[in-house]
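Researcher: Hi, I'm a grad student and pretty new to this. My advisor asked me to get structures for two proteins we've been looking at. I'm not sure of the right format, so I'll just paste the first sequence and hope you can take it from there.
Model: That works fine. Here's the first sequence with its structure tokens right after it:
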Amino acid sequence: GDSMRQRIKFTNERVCKSHLLDSCPHNILSGTRMDLGECMKVHDLALRADYEIASKEHEYFFELDAAEHLQSFISDCDRRTELAKKRLAETQDEISAEVAAKAERVHELNEEIGKMLAKAEQLGGEGNVEEAQKVLENVEKSRALKKEAEEVYRNSMPASTFQQQKLRVCEVCSAYLGLHDNDRRLADHFGGKLHLGFIEIREKLEKLRKAVMEKQEKMRTRRPEEREQ
């Protein structure tokens, strides 16, 4: 509240620098299956506004703090993904690289279908019915390809092995995906807040990294006497 604002400035170490740069994972994943609860640091939109004004005049390098925060979060997530993949591999029979590639093809088409369905729903919700219709026509084409790919895959192994090869781990958000997931599940996953939240966090991390590099470069190329001011 107001009393808090009078007490601390946005430069205070208790203030979340990721929030000042609109990239705190606690905000982005709020309300998802991986809700992180409240951030331990202060989130205050008024402080963000103060920072945005002040940063036009002065370089604070908060991108560095935010990038480190997001990097540690994404590294945790990637570790979880690797662990989940390992666990999964232990429960599934070993399959040849050739068969694995056939399974991969089905998963790729699943992802394509899931993303398109989520897009069509979004367009429909915005009233772009014609656009949504076009996307759904493409979904039909991908469905036909998926049916073929599933046949090819199914015929490349014994039925018992086929039963086991159903799951994989999403590289973006570390959730499990089923090879035989129906359209609804695919759309819910690829258009869901969790998956999209992770895409957003990864994109913001990339942007922060770039900003840090550009600013460091700028500092390096400035004349020494300017740096001392």
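Researcher: Oh nice, that was easy. Here's the second one.
Model: And its structure:
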Amino acid sequence: MVSPPPSASRRKPTAKPASGPGRPKDLGKRAAILEAAKQLFAREGFNGVSMDQIAAEAGVSKLTVYSHFGDKDALFAAAVQAKCEEMLPDALFEIELKGSLRDQLKAIAQAFFALITSEEAISTHRMMMVPGNIDDKLKQTFWEAGPQRTHDAFAALLQAQVAKGELDIPDVATASVQFFTLIKGEVHARMTCGLCGQPRPADVGRHIDATVDMFLRAYGRR
């Protein structure tokens, strides 16, 4: 057998590339962290939850949590956005959906009502209302990740329908606020105050039908 040249026999094996911070994140771990954060923030409040608790609940290390989200504020914002995207997916606001505009508005209203009356949303709303519970920066983070995202998406849909001649709305931003305020109705306030539980599906259906019809009477093409 021919021996390799001396230089080849002493050649060191090629080193594997080091795993750095730029490597792809584990999406399964990210999802587990988000789910743990959603549950814990809703149950314990922002100040009542530590990154250690979230890591333990998700079954990952605290370092992994920080690697994915940076800090607790960013994780809170991501958890709020994830909850909104889960219950109010972007597909609901697509402009060229099949079916009538009324059906699309009803679908958005139903998803929004289910979101705001969920246990997590009610708990988060109560947490946000306690003076001194969280700082103004975090409140703004919550608003941008949740309500503002929804209002912007709906306003864009309304503007597209105005351009198509389906709606007549002089100010789509105001109309968006009006729509979601009407959908909240009295029930959301009563639930937040602990005065009632989940409404009956039949009552929710009647409320949404009446609200969508009122909105279309105000802004529908004449």
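Researcher: Is there anything I should tell my advisor about the second?
Model: You could mention this: The domain at 88-219 is CATH 1.10.357.10 (Tetracycline Repressor; domain 2).
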